[in-house]
Amino acid sequence: MDMVSMGLLAAMGALATIAGTSEDLESDVGSQSNPNSQVQLAAQVGHTHRIYNKAISGEPPSNALYAALAAVTASVLMSDAYGMNAFFSIAVGSLVAAVFNGILSMTSYMGRNTSQARFNQYVYLDVLRSHTTTIMAHAYITAFCVVAISYIMTAPWLPIQHPFPLPVIAFTWGIALGAIGSSTGDVHYGAEREFQQYPFGAGLNAANSGDIVTKGEAGLRSSIDNAWFCAKFGGPVTGLAFGLIVFLDNWRTTIFDPATQGWYAIATGVLIVVLLNVYNRILEVRSKKRYGPYPEYVGDIKA
Amino acid sequence: MSVAAGGGESKIDKTKLTMYGLGGGILGIYLAHVLNMITGTGYFSFLAGLGAIAAIVMGADAVRRVCAYGIGTGVPSIGMMAMGMGLVAAMFGLAVAGVAGPIIGIAIAMGFGYFVGMLANKIIKMNIPVMEEVLMSLGGAGAVVIIALSVVISGQIGYQDMLNDVVFTGFIAIVFIAGALAILQPFNANLGPDETQDRTLVHAISTGGLAMFAAGIGSLITVGVGGAVLTMLIAAAIWLKAFLWYFKLVKRDSAGVVGTGLLAEGGL
Amino acid sequence: MSTFDASTLIYVIQIVIGGLLVGIGVHFVPVGGAPAAMAQATGVGTGTVQLATGSGLTGLISAGLMMSVTDNILLIVLSGAVGAMIMMDVTMIVGNWVYIYGIGVPPVAAKVDYDPITKDPQPPYISPGTVGHGVPTVSYVSGTIGGLLGGAGGSLIYYALMNINGVSGLSAFFAIGIFVVNAVIASYNIQGTIEGFHDPKFKRIPRAIQACFIATLIIGIFAVLIHGGA
Question: Is B183 on the interface with A (CB under 8 A)?
């Protein structure tokens, strides 16, 4: 453990936080993954919309694609044949990943809305023009941060030197990031923002499925409005999640040398897991006490 | 993500697609290998990329057939599983059989797929009629795509070359995920009651072009600038043509492609 | 082709055990699928395979780092398990933050009337028209166990393959491939959503054990015959 390693660790944590935030906002601007099922359902129950219906087959594979593509381009440019500086290589690689994201998003929007032709769902070209570049920008930030983290973990002149090659680590972090973003920030978009007309404090009643907000504060609801809202809570929280995971995973092996003190690293990990379990219990008890039981409940079980 | 919305009928027969996919894939791989060996350069690697696109179209059609049954776990999982099976089988074939490796690898992958489909139907009792046959096609498509994109990067079929150019550099990551996404993105992006087979398959050609381009980027340092730039240019041209064709089909099928506008009244 | 002798047999057994751990672990992870993302079902709001693969692969990174400096199988497998557990736990905690503070619902399970671990009553806290929401204590503990098993399984497969072919990138991708096959078979078994080990669907585990055993055995036999080049 030395100052350089700790400094790099802090940088990795910060990059991971930004990556998590931008990944979640990217999946909010282009409605992706599970909340998108409600957007899909909305047209089928009669609520046509102007939401960007992007469905790039789940967040883990798609984020893995951007990360791996940026990493491959970066490693090609950093190799001896081209000898580009690491910073610029990762930037160019992220640009290629962002372009791929833009192409996949556009075709997905067009495809999904076309396959709902019988419900009179139009394909709005101005939605494509205004939103696609925003989505690409978020994907650029995500890819850049993930590849930067992977580069710090694999660069031969830096202390960690993970055995996996750069694209493989980027691929793995991409899948993990997609899984995290899909589990945390997307819930804020799906349960809160998509159904903001229903009162705060309840899950989505099955009877209201598909009844998403299509008319916004002034004019029709657009996905950029949704990203504005989710950037206040869902995005940063996802960033915290990914940042914590990257930090805690690597902190244990930075303060304890893996070759000689591996068991201390494992013990620290187990301690963290136990503390998180206890914290979850505390959260659960406090939330039930604060919110109380639902008045509509008419069974025998006492709260 | 269990959206059980099926699609339209299939106008293109699945056996023909399977034959074209497998045949085109194997042809592309061997042509690239033989021509590269004869000329001693890497200029013909793009032929393997064309083979990959054929297999991607076949795989996208297989995904289309199975997901109409609402298997409950969503489209991405089945694509990743196909690539996982295809990867192990492809590497096995290449490691043990030298130049005949691709054919053996593809056959083993199809066997895996059939076997896992049988497990799913008999032990897990999913009882989906097309499961074995679809997973067999998907396994085969996965293996062809992995071998073909790897040949784009390494230029020849030899196992040691493949290890040096694709595995040690880490490019196997992009081969895996770009191939997986190319197979399962078309159906996922066109999911809905008015999905038509030709639009989905044209989309598959365009995602195949993207996967070929991604492999081309990797081949810049393994095959040489000439071959790599040729691959990337051809991939970009295929993508552009397929994308414009796809947009024409979108205009044909949709309720309306409008520049801007308010919401239409719900149809039905 | 590598020789098929006694040590190869041990590696095949390790791969099969790893695959079984993955398949069983997927049954513990509380996943609500698309409805959970709308606070309509208990569990994390994502797909089974996605979350299991995400946590297993995070464990694989830790295991890979450990394997480059040591040879101790217990240390490698456990560090993979701990990496996956941390990922799963942080994801579930942050998910609960969003449910409690962002949407305003308490974590509650719907498949049981009383939480098996804390004995808290569940039905009065379920929003009307939903089938539970959030990650209550029993699901959280179940998820931790699921992360442990999944991470351990993936790391064990990686360990066995590294000992055979010595190429870290190749072994990592084979491990990912075998991991995904087992995770998908297990998720077919639970049909995409499960609340944890208290869920009645958990009793279907024997079918998944059989299917994962056979599938991993076949794929594992092929995987061990792939050598790592000259």
Answer: no
